[in-house]
Structure formats: structure tokens, C-alpha cells
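Section 3.1 - Work completed
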Amino acid sequence: MLVVSKVAVRLLPRERLFAWASRPPRRVRRFANHEINWVAWAVETVGAKPWMQALALPRALAAQAMFRRRGIPSRLCLGVARDGDALAAHAWIEIGADKVLGGAAAARFTRLAEFGGERV
């Protein structure tokens, strides 16, 4: 899923990419907590490999797709922060109030947008 996400970030228009990220899961599984840590670990481990080197947005998109497939509602969040004279961007995944992917670095970023979440 990381490879698909990296290609999608490079080739798809952002409107289509974020429309895809906004889709809720078809069914919601309330008791899939053991899978949350496994998905986060898998995406972080493979994304950090030298041959993959996936940045935050492809990692977040891949994790959100994997959560959606498992029936776990999640939010993909985008934020920015000042990095000297430049701006830095970051993406992370939240489930409920918890930041499950990319959350360690997310504290210094101001949230600009979020996609996905649970059906109302």
C-alpha cells in the first residue's frame, strides 16, 4: 500500500487524492484495537526502509487505507509549522483522540485540514 500511496501522491490531482482519503469504511468494527498497533508498526517499519523512504503523506495515506479496509474509522490530518524562514508540512493519522501514526512530530504542527473519520 505504501508504493501505491507514493505513486498516487506524485500522479493524482490533490482533489482526487483527498476525496479518496475522505471515504469512510464500508463497515465499522468496534473491537479491532489489536490491529491498530500492527498497522502503524507495519507502515512505519516499511516506510523507513532505505529502498522505500516514504514521507509522512504517503505513510498516512497507506495507513488510512489499511485501517479503512479493516473497518477502523480514522482521520488523516495535515498540518504546517515554521522551520526557520520556511514552512514544514506533516501528515498524521488519528483514531478517536489518539495520534496513532506520525503523532510524535505532530505536536509542533498547526492542523490545517482533516479527511475521513467516522460516519455520522
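Second construct:
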Amino acid sequence: MSETSVALAEGETRHAMIRVWMAISAIWVAFWLCMAALVIVTSETSGPLVSQLRLFALIVMVPPVVLLALGAAFRFGFETLLRKK
């Protein structure tokens, strides 16, 4: 394989992984938004909602960001390992 074809495949792989991350993150956020809408519609309490929204935002946003960070770390480690060989 030539250097250009390897570089091209690396770029395509990077874009494909970003697309997979975006799809998983979109499904995750949509699921939790549906759950929140269901809870808000069915709940009868009108207490302090701000503290609950902070926890909800944490539950919704942290896993996709952690998944992205882990993917970037694994990619960096894999590329570093390949460059040493």
C-alpha cells in the first residue's frame, strides 16, 4: 500500500468514527429528552425544577463527551503505537 492510500484510509476512518459518535450521541440525547418530556407530562409536582434540570443535563451531556474523549485517546494511542513500529 502506498503512503497516500494509507493517509486517505486514515482520513476516511476518522470521519467514519466521528459519524458513528454523532449518531450514538444523537440517539442518547433524543432518548433522554423523550424521557424528560414523559416525566414532565406525567408528574404532578411543581417543586424546584432547576436542581433537577442540572442533574438531567449532567446525565444527558457527560456520556457522549466521555465517549468522544475515550475514542480520541484510543486513536491517539493506536497511532502512537503504529508510528513506533
